[in-house]
Design brief:
This protein is mainly beta and about 70 residues long. About 15% of the residues lie in helices and about 40% in strands. It is built from one helix and three strands; from the N terminus they run βαββ. A hairpin with a 5-residue loop joins β2 and β3.
C-alpha cells in the first residue's frame, strides 16, 4: 500500500530461476541481503528474476491504472 493509505499495487510476473553466480553475488552484496546466511554457489541460495512483469495501481479515488515495464 502506498504511504497515503488510499492506493495499492498488484504485480503480476513470471518468476524464473537465475542460476548465475553473478546474480547470487549481487543479491548477497546488497546491504539488505542475507549475506550472513548464505554464500554464492553454496547450493542453498536461489535467486529469481521476474519477467513479463506488469502491475495495476488501484485507488479508492481513481480508476485502475495499468503499468507495463
Amino acid at each position: 500500500m502506498y504511504e497515503d493509505g488510499t492506493s495499492w499495487l498488484r504485480v503480476t510476473a513470471t518468476a524464473e530461476e537465475d542460476s548465475r553466480i553473478e546474480a547470487q553475488r549481487a543479491v548477497l552484496d546488497d546491504p539488505t541481503g542475507p549475506k550472513g546466511l548464505y554464500e554464492a554457489g553454496d547450493g542453498r541460495f536461489v535467486v529469481f528474476k521476474l519477467t513479463n512483469a506488469w502491475a495495476v495501481k488501484y485507488s479508492f479515488f481513481a480508476p485502475p491504472e495499468e503499468i507495463r515495464a
